[in-house]
Amino acid sequence: MYVIPKEGQAVPDPERADTLPADGRDVPETQYWLRRLADGDVQRGQPPKPKGAK
Question: What is the pTM (predicted TM-score) of this model?
Answer without folding.
Answer: 0.84
